[in-house]
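Lab notebook page, bench 4
Experiment: in silico fold of construct C2
Operator: M.H.
Input chain length: 335 residues
Purpose: comparison with the prior construct
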Amino acid sequence: MADRLSDSRFARRFGLSTPIALAPMAFGTGGALATTCAKAGALALIGGAYGDLEFTSTQYSAAEEALCDTPEALARLGCGFITWRLEEDSSALDWLLDREAKPAAIMLSFGDPTALAKRIIAADIALICQVQTLAMAREAVEAGASVIVAQGAEAGGHGMNALDGRSTFTLVPEIADYLAAKAPHVQLLAAGGIADGRGLAAALMLGADGALVGSRLWASAESLAPEAAIAQAVAADGDSTARSKVFDILREKNWPAHFDFRALRNGIHREWEGRLDELGADPAGAIANYKAGVEARDYSRAHVTVGEGTGLIKDAPSAGEIIAAIDAEARVLLQ
């Protein structure tokens, strides 16, 4: 029987031993986490997120330095950004495109990728586009994406709003069918709720070429997330998250209307559920309370960015151990 993991199109395209990509999570995926994932055989995408040049250059350079003696792992290093934020400030992308050693891939999420895609493709860098609907998948294909990430609403952090969001389980095969018919050269990753080997195996069975893993790797020894936040995620179950605009308002992030944010449903979130208009009209007191919670690492007020897969997270070992466990379980299931 062929090895469906290391022989997947995605694994072969990027020289991986397993068809897993590390999600470029804002303030979670730094150089240490990317380094460990690249060495473990996954595609490692630094969390360039809001396009902060200092953060991106520092974390990306740290990973490059750590991987300089393992060229096969260095070739698995890339970066991901929030598309609409790069339209306001592209300095971090400019820095990456000007480097002599090009990233393996650049991932764009949340916004029309067309204009930025031209620059990335012209630099001979693989473009990955994360989408939340079939219409967005069509847009990404037209922009020239090499890989599409189909993100279900189960995912942690930002995604399609609760009204319009799709489930990973139905979005992935629908986009897989579209790509097979219209753009068979474009590869597909599943994202949202994938936290173990069952999820990776299911992604392949649904027609994906691999999986983008976020929350499970956010809860790892190398993550930039605070240990106390990770402990909250480990203790939570999948019923404990919610998707809304609450934390975007509290963090003063001006996100487009059709995207919102999934995190643990804590005290401050429950306080403002159903009162978004009131919160948006006069947020100062709530923002101050939130910021005090962040400072104190009080997670009844500060946010913990995980998706519904948090119920499958029982510990926070090294990311290398996590990837090996996901890979091993998926191999058994696929046989």
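Observations: Residues 319-334 form the longest helix (16 residues). The chain has a mean pLDDT of 95.
Next step: discuss at group meeting.
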